[in-house]
Task: inverse folding
């Protein structure tokens, strides 16, 4: 299990990418994502469904980090406006150390470039299962090797809460 960039680490540990290729891909992912439109990310002490209701133009749900913790991401003015609204409602927030709106459609150009980088990299079926941040459940071998999956992972919300629920259920069944 990894979160955002950590999922690329999980793929390396699982054997999809070599360690060296994983390092190269991580650097490329950071490079192309940093070149996108400036934005902000804001963690909020709200369940993802409650935060989603408050999102409007230029704001997206970027991560579900816990039952009562989620992250909004978007253009600077939109995130600052959300931050003010949440403060007025007494909701605890924290700006993340990001100058870009990760896990949003604003990452489309980065996703396209990263897809090409993954397509040019040797990939193997995973030897160890891991949980997808995109779907929130176990990743399939074909999906793990698909360059489009890795492009989607950049623009999709991180479903970490779902990942944790799957792990908890697995543990319960053991």
Result:
């Amino acid at each position: 299990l990894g979160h955002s960039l950590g999922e690329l680490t999980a793929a390396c540990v699982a054997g999809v990418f070599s360690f060296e290729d994983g390092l190269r891909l991580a650097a490329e992912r950071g490079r192309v994502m940093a070149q996108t439109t400036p934005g902000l990310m804001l963690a909020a002490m709200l369940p993802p469904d409650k935060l989603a209701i408050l999102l409007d133009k230029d704001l997206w749900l970027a991560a579900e980090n816990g039952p009562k913790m989620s992250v909004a991401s978007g253009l600077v003015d939109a995130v600052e406006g959300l931050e003010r609204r949440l403060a007025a409602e007494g909701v605890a927030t924290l700006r993340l150390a990001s100058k870009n709106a990760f896990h949003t459609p604003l990452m489309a150009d980065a996703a396209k470039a990263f897809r090409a980088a993954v397509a040019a990299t040797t990939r193997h079926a995973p030897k160890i299962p891991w949980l997808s941040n995109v779907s929130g459940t176990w990743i399939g071998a074909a999906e793990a090797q698909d360059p489009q999956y890795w492009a989607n992972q950049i623009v999709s919300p991180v479903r970490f809460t779902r990942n944790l629920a799957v792990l908890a259920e697995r543990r319960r069944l053991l």
Summary: The chain has a mean pLDDT of 96.
